[in-house]
Amino acid sequence: MLRRLDKIRFRGHKRDDFLDLVESPNASDTECSDEIPLKVPRTSPRDSEELRDPAGPGTLIMATGVQDFNRTEYDRLNEIKGHLEIALLEKHFLQEELRKLREETNAEMLRQELDRERQRRMELEQKVLKARTEEQTAQQPPKGQAQANNGAERRSQGLSSRLQKWFYERFGEYVEDFRFQPEENTVETEEPLSARRLTENMRRLKRGAKPVTNFVKNLSALSEWYSVYTSAIAFTVYMNAVWHGWAIPLFLFLAILRLSLNYLIARGWRIQWSIVPEVSEPVEPPKEDLTVSEKFQLVLDVAQKAQNLFGKMADILEKIKNLFMWVQPEITQKLYVALWAAFLASCFFPYRLVGLAVGLYAGIKFFLIDFIFKRCPRLRAKYDTPYIIWRSLPTDPQLKERSSAAVSRRLQTTSSRSYVPSSTPAGLGKEEDAGRFHSTKKGNFHEIFNLTENERPLAVCENGWRCCLINRDRKMPTDYIRNGVLYVTENYLCFESSKSGSSKRNKVIKLVDITDIQKYKVLSVLPGSGMGIAVSTPSTQKPLVFGAMVHRDEAFETIFSQYIKITSAAASGGDS
Questions:
Q1: pLDDT at position 50, please?
Q2: Which residues does the UniProt record annotate as the domain GRAM (predicted)?
Q3: What is the 3-state secondary structure (H, E, C) of 187-246?
Q4: For residue 467, what are the β-bridge partners?
């Protein structure tokens, strides 16, 4: 049985029967595409009888295995055939590309030209070497002279190297400083917000600005004759120094004296050289642990101080800018004429005379004229030209207000022409006539609140204060809180709702009917004194609250002062 199985297993195809396509690379595509003859194994009748033997089931299983094996061998041969065809095609294409490249580049011609150039170069080098050797033989001195020349060259080289070394040791560091290097852009790390760091920086700023503020205080004290003897001595010394041409040496001497005193103070001496006595302010010890409300209040205080400081600085810078940008031509024209006069004087008069005139004017202005103007404000408002110019210079917010006021006046005049008579009634001034037609964003003021024409907002609240009205008597959310603008007139407190609709949403309160007015804090959780005003009237069970007011203190003072004025006038009228 085993012998029969061996015969069946090894009746497959022999490897010698296949064509070796790799060894015949020049075979054509037709040759590669021909099918390879395969020898199909033939079974004898004896073998078929053995396969059909019902007594041997193992023989049938082995027969099916042999057929599967023959089938897989046939598939593998087909796969190898496909790979060989692909390889032959790639080889054919590569040979074609190589032939084209050879035809285009003409590599053989380039090689020939390269060989010619090499030969030419070799010939030239030989000629140059021959010429050099001839020159050297012609110019070669005797041996003794050559040795002397070599020694001189060595000495000169040693001297130059020493000189270079000495120069580099002395001036090399300075030469290196002038070497250009790329700038390094370093980004400073910002510190996180901290209450302790904030208070420390505020104190540092205050201590750093203290010498400057003390210097300004001493100058103002000299100008105001705070100490009569000191101001008189300073005035006399200054005028004599200017008269004799010693003004600049005087200032330099004062600077040296100040530095000398600072040196003595730094060495431990207790010296006080100040016209105005310094008042020592109590220094609060820094708190280690702050509550949330204290931190929030500290941030608000610092923000308020920074806001005021930045506002003053911005006003100064904007006034200087507007002075030079001809925003108000009549003011800039005076500066223009003064500069031309100073230029012509410096051109035609000697510097000694110009310096004497300027120094005398500065001394008289600082010690005498400013003293009189500060004591007499009316004279200053009339005759102090620099003060008048500085006060009349506008800032950018003032320019915006002026432009908006001009536009509103034009709109008022155009609207008033349609329904206002040409002549004003008798007994009305210009201010009353202009106030009769004060308008808000939605229309005329008196028409919105159903008031008389002579009722208009006060000058302080001409544009009103943004706030929200909290009416705790109402239950509906839409009526409980309303956003709008609050106005104060001579007799009324008017609230205009921001939502468009009927005038019923607006609120008008007579100042005489107010029974109580006080500052109010809507949310007790937040730090500070709050941002609201509570107004009590007989018609409301709970006070009306005007909350979320940024300028709460200003509004409260205006309302309270007008309320006191109206109530006192009503009381005096009732008594009479």
A1: 44
A2: 443-521
A3: CCCCCCCCHHHHHHHHHHHHHHHHHHHHHHHHHHHHHCCCCHHHHHHHHHHHHHHHHCCC
A4: 484
Structure tokens belonging to residue 370: 């400013």
Return the SS3 of 409.
Answer: helix
Token readout for 532 is 């609201």
Dist. CA 365–CA 211, nearest whole Å? 25
CA distances from 524 to 151, 241, 472, 520, 534 (A): 101, 65, 17, 10, 15
The H-assigned helical ranges of 365-466 are: 370-375, 377-383, 385-392, 396-419, 430-435, 445-449
Using N-to-C axis directions, what is the helix angle for 329-348 and 385-392, rounded to 10°? 140
In the chain the first and final C-alpha atoms are separated, in Å, by: 151
**Model confidence pTM above 0.85:** no
DSSP-derived 3-state class of residue 91: helix
DSSP label of 17: G
What is the reported pLDDT for 324? 93
Q: Is the pLDDT of residue 10 over 70?
A: no
Q: CATH 2.30.29.30 spans which residues of the chain? A: 446-571
How far is Cα 104 from Cα 484, in angstroms, rounded to an integer? 88
Residue that has been written with the tokens 């202005």 in this structure: 365
For residue 401, pLDDT beyond 60: yes
**Alpha-carbon gap, residue 428 to 233, rounded angstroms:** 59
CA-CA distance, 425 to 433, in Å (whole number)? Answer: 9
Cβ atoms of 67 and 51 within 8 Å: the answer is no
Phi, psi of 23 (to 5 degrees): -80, -10
d(CA 49, CA 293): 109
Q: Pairing relation of β-strands 481-488 and 507-510?
A: unpaired
Q: Are 300 and 527 in contact (CB under 8 A)?
A: yes
* 256 has a pLDDT exceeding 90: yes
Residue 130: which H helix or E strand, with range? Answer: helix 107-139
Contacts of 376 (CB under 8 A, 6+ apart): none
| CA dist., res. 483 & res. 469, Å (int) | 6
- Find the length of the chain: 576
Judge contact between 396 and 318, C-beta under 8 A: yes
Whether the CA torsion 566, 569, 571, 574 is positive or negative: it is negative
- Tokens 């004025």: give the residue: 565
What CA–CA distance (Å, rounded) separates 4 from 51? 10
Whole-number Å distance between alpha carbons of 567 and 551: 24
* H helix or E strand, kind and range, residue 83: helix 57-105
Task: Note the CATH number of domain 446-571.
Answer: 2.30.29.30
